[in-house]
Every structure is written in C-alpha cells, then in structure tokens.
Design brief:
A 4-stranded antiparallel beta sheet has the order 4-3-5-8, with no helix packed on it. It has a 3-stranded mixed beta sheet with strand order 2-1-9, with no helix packed on it. The chain is mainly beta and about 100 residues long.
Length: about 100
C-alpha cells in the first residue's frame, strides 16, 4: 500500500532498485495498491524505493512535435521519495507486504 499524507495514491509507479547487483523491479500503483508477480519481482535483498505519481497541472504546453498542445503533468510526490529517495526496504524470500506511508513536510 502506498499513501501520501494518509491518502492512497490513485495512480503512480513504484520501483525497487537493488542496493548491490541485480535487476530493478516495479509496478503500477492503483488506488494505493501495487502487486509485483513473483516471476517479475525482485530477489531477496536490500532496495531503494522510488515512487512517482504524475498529475495534470491544468496548463497546456507545446508537445515534442512542436506543433500541437498537450496537457502538462508534474510529479505530485516529493523528490525525497523518488529521484532523491530516502526510502529503503529489505525484501525477504516469499510474499512481502509493505506500507509506504509518505508524509510531506
């Protein structure tokens, strides 16, 4: 489960990045919940956790084709929980359940 200030994150992405060698694994977050199937999941060990959730700003910006306008989005999750993450977790063999209760300052 992933919450921000006590509320489930409606849509987003969670990524587990190994502290040592190994592959990263991730999943979509929907209504605060995420599932990584065992066959796609990370191996047991220590991981950094990055959480992202893009929300519309209400503004329009020029698209990459330089001709049309598109909705602008921004990450609603503070950098300390994604690109500058302070989140870590140790995953064990078998099923793992974790609550990531993110609080903004």
């Amino acid at each position: 489960m992933v919450t921000l200030n006590g509320n489930p994150i409606e849509k987003g992405v969670i990524t587990f990045i190994p502290a040592g060698k190994g592959a990263s694994a991730g999943a979509k977050i929907e209504s605060g919940k995420f599932i990584i199937p065992k066959q796609n999941g990370p191996s047991p060990g220590d991981y950094r956790v990055e959480i992202d959730s893009s929300v519309p700003t209400g503004k329009q910006i020029l698209s990459t084709d330089g001709e049309t306008m598109e909705d602008e989005f921004e990450n609603s999750i503070p950098p300390k929980f994604n690109r500058l993450t302070e989140l870590t977790v140790t995953l064990k063999t078998g099923n793992n359940q974790h609550l990531f209760d993110l609080e903004t300052d």
